[in-house]
Amino acid sequence: MEVEAFNIPRFLAVLPLFGDLSPIELSRAAQGCQVRRLARGDTIFRFGEPCEEFHVVISGQVKLFAISPAGQEKVIELVGPGQSFAEALMFTGRSYILNAEALSNTLLLTVSKHAIVAEIERDPRFSMKMLAGISRRLHGLVHDIESGALHSGVQRVIGYLMRETEVQDCATGEVFTVSLPVTKATLASRLSLTPEYFSKVLRELEDQKLIEIDKRDIRIIDAKRLLRYGVQ
User: Fold this and answer.
1) Cβ proximity of 151 and 162 under 8 Å
2) pTM to 2 decimal places
3) For residue 65, pLDDT beyond 90
4) Which of 42, 103, 159, 214 is the most interior residue, by most CB within 10 Å?
5) Contact, 178 vs 218, CB < 8 A?
6) Nearest to 89 by CA among 130, 34, 33, 147
7) DSSP string of 71-108?
8) How confident is the model over 157-207, as pLDDT tens digits?
9) CATH 2.60.120.10 domain range(s) in the chain
10) pLDDT tens per residue, range 106-143
11) Is the pLDDT reported for residue 76 higher than 70?
């Protein structure tokens, strides 16, 4: 996909935040946007840099992470296509409090603060959509913190696998496949586990014949038993 040929107004129209805007409003908002092509490992922003924009992943994947004083990395969130990040911080006037890096070849839409503020001034209802999106993101982060504090490592791994399958009925007996979108080390950090422990849990689940591991593909053989195993 060529950056120059990317239709920004059309992409904005499918995002919940911009979905109710008219074609004229979408064109106006698009003037404050920039499409960036990133290679794996490219930095989007660093801790302490000014935050004057927010970002939406068009394709690829982005890692949001913090670095401890000792130099250890903690993955805070993995952001995929259609998801946005940094919109809440943009309004505070503060600098970035995390780092962001492309985990794969990524196409990123950057939306300037000026464009958003101008749209809010034209139509205050737009601010309600911004608040709704920020609230959903906050709810997800609170859920992740709760999971990390109250659930065991095994429960966190199982919870991730089951969430990714979007299984509606565990009694069907169907085999589901989850393809890990990132390396096991990155996912382990996201779940607040060491890579060694994450791999140990996967091997344990495979020994129990609950899953089968084929590199990054995890086949869930018995979803019902897997859920029960997580609360034992």
Assistant:
1) no
2) 0.68
3) yes
4) 103
5) yes
6) 130
7) S-EEEEEEE-TT-EESHHHHTTTPBPSSEEEESSSEEE
8) 888 888 766 554 555 567 788 888 778 888 887 787 888 888 899 999 989
9) 8-149
10) 999 999 999 888 888 887 877 777 677 666 666 666 66
11) yes
The answer to whether the beta carbons of residues 159 and 230 sit under 8 Å apart is yes
- The tokens describing 165, both together, are 């399958």
Task: Identify the burial level of 63 via C-beta atoms within 10 angstroms of its C-beta, where 0-12 means exposed, 13-18 middle and 19 or more buried.
Answer: buried
Q: Tokens 């084929």 belong to which residue? A: 214
Helix (H, G, I), strand (E, B) or coil at 110: strand
Domain 8-149 superfamily per CATH: Jelly Rolls (2.60.120.10)
Rounded Cα gap, residues 48 and 226, in angstroms: 42
Q: State the Cα–Cα distance between residues 53 and 59, nearest whole angstrom.
A: 19
CATH of domain 151-229: 1.10.10.10
Query: End-to-end distance of the chain based on CA atoms, in angstroms?
Result: 48
The token duo for 33 is: 């946007």
Q: Please compute the mean of the pLDDT values over residues 84-111 and round it to a whole number.
A: 91
